[in-house]
Amino acid sequence: MSWFSKLKNAVHSKPLDNELADEMSDHLARRAAALREQGWSAADAQQEASRRFGNVTLLREQSREIRPSAILETTFQDLRYAWRGMLKSPAFALTAILSLALAVGANTAIYSIVDAALLRPLPVPEPGRLFILSNPPIEQPGGPAGTENEVFSYPLYQQFRSAAGDSARFALFSLANRIEVQMPDRNAPIEKAICGYVSGDAFDILKVPPALGRVFSSEEDRVPWGAPYLVISYDYWQRRFHGDPRVLGQRVQIGRHAYSIVGVARQGFFGVEPGKFVDIWMPAMMYSKASFANSGWNWFRIIGRLGPGVTLTSLHARLQPVFSAHEDEVVKSYPTMPPSIQKLFRAQPLHVRPGAIGASHFQSTFARPLWIVLGVAAGILLIACANVASLLLARATARSAEMAMRISLGAGRSRLIRQLLTESLLLSTIAGALGWAFARLSVPILVGALSTETDPVRFALSPGFFGADSRVLLFCAAVSTVAAVFFGLLPAWQSSGAQPMRELHGIRVASGRLRMGRLFVAIQVAFSFTLIIAGASFLFSLRNLLNVDTGFNPHNVSVIHISTDLSDITQKPELNVFQDELQRRAEALPGVQSAAISQGALFYGNYWSSQVILPGKPLPNREEPAMGVSPRYFYMMHIPLLAGREFEQRDRDYHHTGPPPTAVDDAPALEYFGNEDPDKGPRPTIVNQALARRYFGTDNAVGKMFQTPDGDKLMSHEIIGVVGNTSYGSLRDGPEPIMYGVVRGSSYVAMYVRSTLDLGSVVKMVERETESIGHGTRIREITTLDTLIGNTLLREKLLAGIGGVFAFLGLLLAAIGLFGLLNYSVTRRTKEIGIRAALGARPPALVFLVLKDMFSMIAAGLVTGLLGSLALMTAVRSLLFGIRPLDPLVMITAAAVFLTAALVAGGLPASRAASIDPMTALRHE
Amino acid sequence: MANSATNSPQTALDLLVLTVLGRRGPLHGYGIANAIEDLSDEALRIDEGSLYPALHRMEEAGWITASWTVTENKRRARIYQMTRAGKKQLAAESDRWTNFSAGVARVLRHA
User: Which one of A14, A178, A251, A677 is least enclosed by Cβ atoms within 10 Å?
Assistant: First the structure.
């Protein structure tokens, strides 16, 4: 038989079936004829022929199964059958498909982010040979857990390189940042782009070729500020330059340098930070000149490629001594470091980790929440599966006569199971396709929820609706298939085991079915109760965080970042004047209550920190953050002044002799108060209540003195004021100590403007003022204090949002399942209930009967769910806030929500039971 | 592996069918069933129907081919015929079978 005819066979299933039937009936006819010749009667001959032959249907089935074409053919048949079955009961099909589609969609959506952010290797050849360097954080005693440090200094990189020799190559990647770029045309607007510095050999090491022009080479690694060239990403080339090949040689102004574009990197290469798409790569040599000799200036990740035969362990053996020596130097450069901390530094391990998936802030922030959410999504899938399984079970009851008929006609059990599983697969395939669509639509929304304006999150998700994202597609298909087997197998096994004689005689054998239905309901209850507790915990955590008393009034405050062309190094006095002028003008604006300036904005996460040294006391083993603020800052923030006074202009009257600020082009300057001029006496400093208590044991620390390390000298501070505690980095931290110095003129400042006017109007007014101030003064970033605080809660919002939605979904599915089973159980017990009613049971008693049934069904599930949620809550403890693992508020809320839903789900069947008319019920069967 | 396959009832049936087709030439299923009974003096009585899955399996394996013909009394019948692969299979299997049964016989004799 040719393949073509086999295929034809499969599509038109008649011939093979007919052939088998014909052949066997031919045999029977011949045998009967032969028997008649031996003298049997016609009827007896027929019967004897059949007896000798055996089970015709079963043999025919066996014969069919032998043919490979028949498998296909059977499948087509089953599919057609399943499709007809679905059309016959659309309500069942719709419920099953929708609940599965939601679950598959949720899983696929979360997985596509998990995959893009945490699993998929960088789009470069041999990503398995990449490594990344990092070291564990040195944590403050009692402070929050830090994240692994991944940034290193240029001198250390050079030492690593010479120590490694041929065994590995190292590429530098600075953290990608949003910066301003400008085309050189007259009046060209200022645009934002994501930019990162890379070493010249980085493209070669990662094996990323150019799509156009050239990429950087070691030539770009030679001279600081000697390589004013740019390589742009393929995506940026298409987006910004519409793929125009004349982009080569295009001049671009970034900061104070003019660059020219020399190439476009290969399509798909987005850098090494999953979650970010770099638009523009600049040579590392174009970074601040001072950084190349400063071993304390950590500004790039080191991602490298192992040489042939080199392992992570052998590379680590070469690099650890270099790193330990470096840490030793670090210790020596801090003469005031207490021995306990020195020991921590000297024991610092260097981690040489696999670098295939790159490294990003997104990964370190969202890895745990994403896995948790994926786990929760899996719970939803289980609930949906249990739901569909009990629907199938209910349907199997309706079809038991049909099954019994088929079994008595000789259909094998495996054949029936296969057919029932085909139905499940058809359901799950349709649901999978729907779920895929659902995921494709929801992923951009999810990613959007994780983005902020200053830190946009983007993934290499294939574009378009049916983008060929094979890994995610595979996941979706696998999840759907596994689901089909999960929800289809038990009901199929159950119903294919029908006992024909009893079924055909109308004897109900449904008790097994009800038992299995109870199992499914218990599963649903357990998972959905766990999800509700999880969702409630995350929601209450978010609420608790939002209710944290920040210590200041964050509402109605615009945060406006302003830069000027004045030099931070040579024009310090002018910058001081500029800054005062800026504040004065902002305060005078109509509708503005107050304005103030600080260096670096609150909740941006970066603070200078310093030991607080008290003469005659042991060196402290911790550092406290410090922040530069302008006069009237505390007044503007509504931070209570507990003792002493605020800063005044005269407090700033110190010479600035410190090192140049660490601001690079666009990064906000992080500069502490600057060095002390010994002639001017101690520096005026304001501390918060927590600092005063920790170091002086009193709120009234005004007039007290302390010192901070300053290179190899000590700087004296005099406390002129004590202010209330505030949150400044994270709402979770509680009242931590902080010290304030008066802010000095800087070319990049954050100005806070308190006004009941909206952000847009405030910005418009401030913009007019900056223009009239001159010196190229302009607005760089705008936001509000509320937004900044909100941005620190993205993780919590993700968990609360998705946790809430998933809890609701789970509850809905469980309620549907519960309703279905109770309804079925009432139908089955119609007669019993009728008898009870006839014997005088009142409707409330009948309602109680059904509800008692329900509670017995859900009790086991509730207990299991409670235990499950305990385990879950313990695992996610660090992501919760103000919630204990067995929080009574959470438990009571969850139980109330669940029981309400259960009562609604059980109420309908119960009221049906109450209204059963004894006469009708008894005539029912 | 080969041994367990050799000695299964399925292989025995295959061997019988191939032997019948080898001795008597092309035959339909009914004919094969009768031939097996005749040749074994009814010692081997198979469930007649179970012959068909075996025939179809051997057909898939390529040892026999089948075609529909109209027989002497104008009936449609499916006629089976041995292929070259079938002949090889028959030779190999009958050798193995002989060895096996001789082995069993030896054991029984000396037991």
Answer: A14
